Amino acid sequence: MDNRATCSLRIFKMKKTVKYIYVVIAVVFMIWALSQQANGNAQIWVQVVAVALFFGLMATLMSKTTSNNPSLQNPGEREFDKAIKEDLLEQEEQSNKQSKE
């Protein structure tokens, strides 16, 4: 059992390291593509790879953020959003009353 936990921890650390390496490679390619474009002798493949890496990073970033779709949210998130909306409406009503006075 302990060996499995150690193995899964190693795999987790490897995945985390690979993600960081992916981010570094993407940033390097993006900077390289910008410098190529500024020099005037742009190589198309560098720009295509940089754009593909950029969109890949954005896709992973968007998969980590919560959804605005209530059907995909858990009950706690829906309750929190509902309470925030009620508070905002209440504040708006109070500000409208104060402006009328």
Secondary-structure blueprint:
Layout: H1 2-39, H2 44-64, H3 75-100
Helix pairs in contact: 1-2
Q: Approximately what portion of the residues adopt beta-strand conformation?
A: under 5%
What does the radius of gyration come to? Answer: 24 Å
Q: Which class do the helix and strand fractions yield?
A: mainly alpha
Residues in helices, as a percent range: over 70%
Q: What about the largest sheet?
A: none
Report the span from N to C terminus: 70 Å
N-to-C order of helices and strands: HHH
Task: Give a verbal description of the structure.
- This protein starts with a helix and ends with a helix.
- The longest helix is centred in the N-terminal third of the chain and has 38 residues, at 2-39.
- It has helices spanning 2-39, 44-64, 75-100.
- It has 101 residues and is an all-alpha fold.
Note the main attributes of this structure:
101 residues; mainly alpha; 3 helices; 84% helix
Question: Brief description of this entry?
Answer:
By secondary structure, the chain is mostly helical.
